[in-house]
Amino acid sequence: MAAPKEHPENDLSSDADYANRHRPAPRNFDELADAPDPFIEAQRNRRSTKQAIAFVLFIPGLTMLVALLLAIVARVMGGPLCESGHATWICSRSAEIWWPIATSVVPVGSIVACGIILWRKYLGYIRWRPWMGAFWATALWAMFWMLVTFQMLIVGH
């Protein structure tokens, strides 16, 4: 059995931090003095994980909100499909084309944004692996969303 650490309050890294990019070793006392506080760094790492989880949970909700708002716009614009009773929300062939494309901007944009955030966290020596998970979760969400909505784009009602 492993011996308990004498001062666990000084152990500021967790198993999630072993893959973090390591800062260059200080070459003199000034660089050592300018190094960030390990406690602040540990807080940034924990905050990065929470931000990645919040990002993954926020994107589907935002996608659905944008989709609902654009569906309301399509309904207000009207069209032959709603007048004949074949549809309730997407009322024209043009709406069947622009609505799936417009609603897919959020999931696709979230993949790009997540990739940029991941790269910036990596370059900033902050915990980046949760953002890799967020990247794949948002990519999965984008594929699911486009699989469902692009059927209308391709085939129509």
In short:
Residues 1-10 have a biased composition (Basic and acidic residues). This protein is mainly α.
Structure description:
- The chain has 157 residues and is mainly α.
- The chain has one domain.
- The chain has six helices and no strands.
- It has helices at 29-34, 38-77, 80-83, 93-103, 105-123, 129-155.
- Helix 2 packs antiparallel against helix 4.
- The longest helix is centred in the middle third of the chain and has 40 residues, at 38-77.
- It is rod-shaped and about 80 Å long.
- The chain crosses the membrane at residues 52-77, 97-119, 131-154.
- Residues 1-10 have a biased composition (Basic and acidic residues).
- Keywords: Membrane, Transmembrane, Transmembrane helix.
- Residues 1-33 are annotated as: Disordered.
Key traits:
6 helices, mainly alpha, rod-shaped, 157 residues
Q: Characterize the main sheet.
A: none
Rg for CA atoms? 24 Å
- Oligomer description: single chain
Strand percent estimate: under 5%
Number of domains: 1
What is the helix tally? 6
Helix content: 55-70%
Overall pLDDT metric:
88
SS-based structural class? mainly alpha
Give a topology summary:
Elements: H1 29-34, H2 38-77, H3 80-83, H4 93-103, H5 105-123, H6 129-155
